[in-house]
Design goal:
The complex is a heteropentamer, with one copy of chain A (267 residues), two copies of chain B (253 residues), one copy of chain C (294 residues) and one copy of chain D (295 residues). With 267 residues, chain A is of the alpha/beta class. In chain A, 30% of the residues lie in helices and 26% in strands. The longest helix of chain B is centred in the middle third of the chain and has 14 residues. Classes of the chains: A alpha/beta (267), B alpha/beta (253), C mainly alpha (294), D mainly alpha (295). The structure holds adenosine-5'-triphosphate (2 copies), magnesium ion (MG) (2 copies) and phosphate ion.
Chain lengths: 267, 253, 294, 295, 253
């Protein structure tokens, strides 16, 4: 759910008077968006430096909690276990997760069930889903990735076991790559590969497949017909400094124009 | 005993780069005799000795011309097989240089290299060689101990035994007793006496008395030349060249 | 004596102590953070558990231990014979002018940052294995399959990385073999080759072993290059063409993802790595001393 | 005395023997291994440089990277690399040199000193990821230095300490005892002797150690990423995060952001290492010469 | 010229670990005289010399007892300042050991250490010291050249000049000419003659003739003991102890 409870900063601090540094760390899916937002923001306030770095969603949570970054970025919702840290969440965008294959792969369309079976290792050959007779190279994200968390939940790769504990059933035969970019590159370079990445990161080096017949586009995601979506979050803890407030305020308002270009805006 | 010439050296010149270390050497080395090379330090004794088994080949920038005939065959001929040559012309170095292996392995090294594999044959050779070098009794109980644990004199005899084990015809010795105490020296001198029955021996020595005691013939080197060569008795009692006399009587060097 | 001398000595001492203290601090930290999970989860479960799935609460480091060992062993199998051969070549066979060119080249190889090797492996070796090696293997075993991210790729790149260490240290060891040994052997009619294999290499063996151990340390410790090319699959591999994840790679990739338990598990992985390196170092100095004493 | 009885000796057949098969194979292997090594070296460097150099121009050096390095140059990354190297060297040098001086000039051979040496030896063997792990938890989080040049510099300083200490120790040990005696006999104190006579005579060894340290700092990836972060911006203060060239290369390569920039960055990195090697060799050579005239 | 005692040594014993290198030494060293220490190798000459400016403090495991009074003050007293002591008791070593600095810097080193900063004063000292060591004319045009480029004899005189520059009272010299050619040796011997006007000099020498030529008094060491000490003329013409006589006449050592 959307829990944007941060108090909108009303009075605009005078233009160009802002100065200082903001460090944003976390999700590698949010990273490209943050970079762009930061670039525009810094143009507006030349005295401000916004430093963006990756790591993964859990790094985002952790760095916000430990206050080693001013803003943590996550590409999934906050887990129950993370709620206790008392983080302030801002949903800055929504993003679909595209299931991507190598451009040479002739498979166009997969059902959620097929995707689940591929990623849990029940289907291991492309011919079982209408492709060539070729073993599937599953590419997954590392433990703790927001994209992975959202993906396994939506595709039911993650199940509840007997005790009601959620268990990630991703096949152990998956290559693991530590960022959205790395998954994309691996899929782009490996003919039989399948992986999942932020929709905003999709380019022509990889081919997104239709899920349940629905193309992986922002419109479809926004309309809710494309099923695999998740929020992008900014996380802060405790009192925010002036510039952090200003930045978040910027992202939630003007920034949404930029969000729209590749992702789904929250306005 | 025959008085054959074993090694015949003709017009031998050797250069280290630009420096001429041997100048027109002519000498005959007799079979089953001990030939001593004497002369002041730096006169070329070691250099000459090393030409006889082509150990100088290991040094860069060495240029050699002239002839060395071993049993009538030119050892500097391109057809000459170095391995066979060095097997036939053994060498014992100034500083004892056993390998860091056991006593047994040291002696067996050469025969093994030359293709002998049976343990029993090797055992035989080891014993025979060590007896030949008068070392058997001292080391027979420690054949499997490291050779580096032997005393200096024992190490030197070990090196002689190692040399005997490949059954050479000629043994070259470069100041083999300079690192040894008098008792070890005596043992080795006695040994030489025995060995010359079967081998042709060339020995470099700084020690005039030693040359006098052990050798049959003596060559006196000076500045890369052979000044005089003769029967040892003659050269010590009535040297023909003044420089020889001066050297022998300790006037210089 | 001028008064400040004592003060200076204490400052110098403090500096020396700082260097040592940092070791203890590092050790302390790693053990403090990592030991609890080893106790809680059980050392044997941790060391021999076959499932590494921290979000599900499985902390079996066995696949990574095997992963690290397999790429390291592979690197040694390729790198050691090559390295020792090059060392022998440099010290014994090569003419001076070749040594002058070849040696700096090897040193350069040592200086190149490991990511460059990783990048090379990723863009050349991984596809090469998939496209050219796999078909060959498939002729023998039709079921064989690889994405190219594999032990083989990791081993080859690590082999190149440890080559300079092995060459340099071994070469020094070979060069320091007394020339008397060589002369002794040559004078007995041994060929150069026999002299090298039977006298020189045995005499230099403690240095050569040291070079191997040092190279091994470097291979075990390498992180980023390995992440790029081994596929990071936390599974016990069945063949050389399988992907693996390593101890170092896992730490680097998952370090940020820290539920407290997960983070502790990574520190425990650090402990294993640490012990592994210690063991290596101790064996190295041990063998060197033992062989050196002989 | 038993003497072997050896009859005979005919003529020795000293005819040239051919290498036997085993030796032929062995030499073949040697040349194979050496050629292969050379080829590997050439192919790695050649592959990177051939693909990279054409994408290097002035802009690449003086422009800031844009959109995660996809376009623009690597100015802030070069700056970050230099900044981080300087900071780590600045931290490690005084400690390392002082520790080396203590160990060579002051230390007695007791248990305590043995412990120090043991510690330094261990430090040299610890894999870099452990330093990263430690730096992240200790400097970044515990000391609240966050991802910064300072955190990275401290971590790298620890990593290069052993190299530096050893290089310094070695070169101090080569200073002839007679220099020290000469100075002391003139009434100089120990410290004066060290500063005025010992250190100047061993300066090139220390420099070589430093350069090797810089090389290690530049080449390190994992530990730097965990401690100095990977932000692309131009670092201004020591508390800013920074991205070094190795980290940049890793991220470009792993995320396939831009082949061109990846090759270009790798090329710059290799050339830099070449330069460093060259510099170290130059110093070593000069040093050898000066000791030669001294003896 | 006065015949004051400059250094008085009483019951001095020195141990290297368990080994006693000096045994109950008693000796008076006279002001403005040259005292020579002679004796066979290993007898303790250098060791004794180094006790006089406490250079032995640098060696581990050295134990010393007894008294050495310099101008009546015990130099082994805990109150004694080592720096001042060494400044007052200069030392010239057997092997010339100039610093790897320029000629000028070598001489100026000591004065700088002792706090002299002005360039002009330093210039003066450098010139005076070099003149004192009879080296000025040879090096005045190359003061800024590395001292290691000087010849052996020049280096030795440079070291003497370096020693003079701190204006000591006593100069200790450990075989200062053993590495030099005869001409350099002569220069230094002449120099000693000059220097003794202003300094008290103790010199270790292997060279009997040298001791005879330059010294006023001579002490003969054997196995860590002083066998005999007397005016040089007396000791060489009529040694009291048989061992001294044997040594001087070359019977042993
Ligand atoms: N490898 C070499 N390169 C250049 N010159 C050499 C080499 N070996 C020896 N020489 C020179 O050749 C001359 C003869 O040397 P050689 O070793 O034969 O003398 P030697 O008679 O054995 O002296 P010694 O009795 O001191 O052993 C000497 O002037 C020596 O300096
Ligand atoms: N640092 C040391 N540790 C142990 N023993 C030493 C040390 N220095 C010298 N000695 C021993 O003390 C004895 C005296 O040595 P010293 O150097 O004083 O002899 P010396 O008379 O100067 O001989 P030389 O004329 O050869 O220089 C010798 O037996 C020597 O072996
Ligand atoms: Mg010789
Ligand atoms: Mg002495
Ligand atoms: O990098 P993530 O967005 O998958 O956490």
């Amino acid at each position: 759910g959307c829990t944007s409870n941060g108090e909108p900063v009303q009075e605009k601090t005078g233009e160009n008077t802002l100065s200082g540094k903001i460090v944003i760390a976390g999700s590698t899916s949010v990273q490209p968006l943050s970079e762009e937002l930061a670039a525009v923001f810094m143009e507006k306030y030349p005295e401000v430096a916004v430093e963006v770095q990756g790591g993964g969603s859990s790094v985002g949570v952790k760095s916000a909690v430990d206050k080693i970054a001013d803003i943590g970025a996550a590409s999934r919702e906050i887990k129950e276990s993370e709620k206790e840290f008392g983080l302030t969440e801002y949903v800055i965008a929504k993003d679909g997760i595209a299931v991507v294959v190598n451009p040479f792969n002739e498979v166009e369309d997969l059902t959620l069930e097929q995707i689940k079976k591929i990623f849990t290792g029940e289907i291991t050959n492309w011919k079982e889903v209408g492709g060539k007779d070729q073993a599937i190279t599953v590419v997954s994200r590392e433990e703790g990735s927001g994209t992975r968390g959202a993906f396994v939940e939506i595709t039911k790769v993650q199940k509840k076991d007997a005790e009601g504990k959620k268990v990630d059933k991703t096949t152990v035969n998956a290559l693991v790559q530590p960022s959205t970019g790395a998954v994309k590159q691996t899929v782009a370079n490996t003919p039989a590969a399948i992986g999942y990445i932020s929709m905003g990161a999709v380019d022509d080096t990889v081919k997104p497949v239709k899920v349940e017949g629905v193309e992986a586009t922002e419109e479809n995601a926004k309309a809710g017909t494309y099923k695999i979506t998740r929020p992008f979050l900014y996380l802060t803890k405790g009192d925010e400094s002036e510039i952090v407030k200003a930045y978040i305020e910027f992202v939630l308002n003007e920034g949404q124009e930029i969000v729209k270009e590749e992702f789904i805006s929250v306005k | 005993m025959l008085n054959n010439t074993k090694i015949m050296v003709r017009n031998l010149n050797l250069f280290y780069g630009e420096f001429q270390a041997l100048k027109d050497i002519n000498i005959d080395i007799k079979e089953n005799k001990i030939t001593a090379l004497i002369g002041p330090s730096g006169c070329g004794k070691s250099t000459f000795l090393r030409t006889l088994n082509r150990m100088n080949d290991l040094i860069d920038h060495v240029r050699i011309n002239g002839q060395i005939l071993l049993d009538g065959l030119d050892i500097y001929d391109s057809q000459c097989d170095l391995i066979t040559l060095r097997r036939n012309v053994g060498m014992v170095f100034q500083k004892p240089n056993p390998f860091p292996k056991t006593v047994y392995e040291n002696i067996a090294y050469g025969p093994k290299i030359h293709g002998i594999k049976e343990k029993s044959t090797l055992d035989e050779i080891v014993e025979k060689s060590l007896r030949g070098a008068a070392l058997w009794d001292e080391v027979k109980d420690r054949l499997d101990k490291p050779a580096l644990g032997l005393s200096g004199g024992q190490q030197q005899r070990l090196c002689i035994a190692r040399c005997l084990a490949v059954e050479p015809d000629v043994i070259l010795m470069d100041e083999p007793t300079s690192a040894l105490d008098p008792i070890s020296t005596l043992k080795i001198e006695n040994l030489l006496e025995e060995l010359k029955k079967d081998y042709t021996i060339v020995i470099v020595t700084h020690n005039m008395q030693q040359a006098g005691r052990v050798s049959d013939e003596t060559a006196f080197f000076l500045n890369g030349e052979i000044i005089e060569m003769n029967l040892t008795d003659s050269i010590f009692s009535k040297p023909k060249d003044k420089r020889t006399k001066d050297y022998i009587t300790g006037r210089f060097g | 004596m001028k008064k400040y001398e004592k003060i200076i000595e204490s400052i110098l001492l403090i500096c020396a102590v700082v260097a040592t203290l940092s070791v203890f601090l590092i050790t302390l930290f790693i053990f403090k953070e990592g030991l609890p999970i080893l106790k809680e989860y059980g050392i044997t479960n941790f060391l021999f558990g076959k499932t590494w799935s921290p979000t599900n609460g499985y902390y079996g480091a066995f696949p990574m231990i095997i992963g690290s060992i397999s790429v390291t062993l592979g690197a040694l199998i390729i790198g050691v014979p090559m390295g020792i051969t090059c060392a022998v070549f440099l010290a014994e066979i090569a003419p001076k002018h070749i040594v002058k060119v070849f040696k700096p080249a090897i040193e350069l190889l040592a200086g190149i940052p490991s990511v460059v090797y990783g990048f090379f492996g990723l863009s050349i070796l991984v596809p090469f294995i998939r496209i050219h090696i796999l078909p060959i293997v498939q002729k023998l075993n039709p079921d064989a399959y690889t994405s190219g991210y594999s032990i083989l790729a990791g081993a080859i790149i690590l082999a190149v990385m440890i080559l300079p260490t092995i060459v340099n240290v071994s070469e020094n060891a070979i060069r320091s073999v007394p020339v008397e040994y060589k002369q002794g052997s040559i004078a007995l009619g041994a060929s150069h080759f026999e002299t090298i294999t039977k006298v020189i290499i045995p005499a230099a063996r403690s240095g050569i072993i040291a070079s191997v151990v040092l190279g091994m340390g470097r291979a075990v410790g390498e992180t980023m290059a390995v992440i790029l090319i081994t596929g990071n699959m936390p599974k016990v591999p069945g063949s050389l063409l399988d992907s693996v994840s390593t101890l170092t790679g896992t730490i680097a990739m998952e370090m940020g993802y820290a539920t407290p338990m997960h983070q502790k598990a990574l520190f425990a992985t650090g402990i294993i790595l640490f012990m592994f390196i210690m063991l290596l170092n101790i064996t190295a100095t041990g063998t060197m001393k033992r062989l050196g004493a002989k | 005395m038993v003497v072997n009885t050896k009859v005979h000796i005919g003529k020795i057949a000293i005819k040239k023997k051919n290498l036997n098969l085993k030796e032929k194979i062995a030499y073949l292997w040697v040349y194979f291994a050496v050629t292969l090594t050379t080829l590997i070296l050439l192919s790695i460097i050649g592959y990177v440089l051939l693909n990279g150099v054409k994408h290097i121009n002035i802009d690449f050096f003086i422009k800031e990277p844009k959109s995660m390095g996809r376009s623009g140059g690597i100015f802030s990354i070069i700056a970050g690399t230099i900044y981080l190297s300087i900071v780590s060297i600045a931290i490690a040098t005084p400690i390392g040199v002082c520790a080396a001086i203590y160990l060579t000039e002051y230390a007695k051979d007791n248990k305590f000193v043995k412990l120090i040496r043991f510690g330094i030896e261990i430090l040299a063997g610890i894999p870099s990821i452990i330093f990263g792990l430690f730096g992240f938890v200790f400097f970044v989080i515990f000391l609240k230095l966050r991802w910064s040049i300072l955190s990275g510099g401290l971590t790298l300083a620890l990593m290069i300490l052993p190299t530096l200490i050893r290089a310094t120790e070695e070169s101090i040990k080569t200073v002839p005892q007679s220099y020290r005696e000469g100075s002391l006999a003139l009434g100089a104190t120990k410290w004066e002797t060290i500063v005025k006579v010992v250190l100047p005579s061993s300066i090139s060894g220390i420099l070589t150690g430093l350069i090797l340290g810089i090389g290690r700092a530049i080449g390190e990836t994992a530990a730097v990423m965990l401690t100095a972060g990977s932000a692309l911006g131009l670092p201004k203060t020591i508390m800013d995060p920074a991205r070094t060239m190795s980290v940049h290369l890793y991220l470009l390569a792993s995320e396939g952001i831009s082949k061109e920039k990846t090759f270009a960055t790798a090329s710059v990195l290799i050339v830099l290492v070449l330069l460093i090697n060259f510099l170290a060799n130059m110093i070593v050579n000069k040093y050898m010469k000066s000791t030669r005239t001294a003896s």
